[in-house]
Amino acid sequence: MLFGSIISATDPVAVVALLKDLGASKRLATIIEGESLLNDGTAMVVFLVMLDIVEGKPTDGLAITIKFIRLAVGGVLFGLFFGIILTLCLSRINKKPVLETNLTITFAYLTFYLAETHTIHVSGILALVSLGIYTSHFGKPRLDKHSSHAIHTTWSYIGFCAETIIFMLAGLIMAKAAHEREDVWTDIFKTIGLYALLHLIRFICLFVSLPVMRKMGYPMNLSHVALLSYSGLRGAVGLTLCLLVMKSPNVPD
């Protein structure tokens, strides 16, 4: 289950960028981004719960349930609280792109930091998801087009830098680990096979769910299913979780 939580986190950045270049519908890109937001947050909560079990920390069914609810529900409520404050601050500012951009950055990092502290200890990712959804729905209409453009451009650059750093760190650490292992080629072939298998499983799940999604108002066809299957690429979140496992002294080799 720990491994499943790691490989379930998707990274839609490259796929959404490709969709924009191809002129695909914004609705399809929104589905991919929305899935990733909720999927990554849930995967992180399951990962933290499973990591305690793998590390051998004393726990039972009740403790696991309480921790899961605290991380998931507490993270959402915590993010909503800061989303309300951020929206109120944005409503009192008018046509100041620099100040509005700085506010979104400050609230995002402050929300994640406070959520992950030992005192509060809820899911920082889910807190950011609820903060972003609330602010996008209630705070974004209060911004003019210049402020919206400035915020979007700044956050796109921050996301690019963050993903680049994670991929560089993961590449260096994996290269070092590969150099020290004797059966590295076996691991490489297993990884390639797993990559193909994950896409096949994702395609089957989406294909089976196609009639239900159509009834729910998502007019999709097989080409959409194939594109959504490809959008399940694993990225920065999965690599970060892998690094946490590798650097944990209590996880067996």
Q: What is the strand tally?
A: 0
Beta-strand share of residues: under 5%
Computed Rg: 20 Å
Shape: globular
The poorly predicted ranges are none
Instruction: Please state the average pLDDT score.
Output: 85
> In this structure, how is the largest beta sheet organized?
none
Termini separation comes to 17 Å
Total DSSP helices: 10
Total count of domains: 1
User: What share of residues is helical?
Assistant: over 70%
Helix and strand element order: HHHHHHHHHH
Helix and strand composition category: mainly alpha
Plain-language structure description:
It is globular, with a radius of gyration of 20 Å. The chain has 253 residues and is mainly alpha-helical. The chain has 10 helices and no strands.
Quick structural gist:
Helix content is 79%, strand content 0%. The protein is mainly α and 253 residues long. The mean pLDDT is 85.
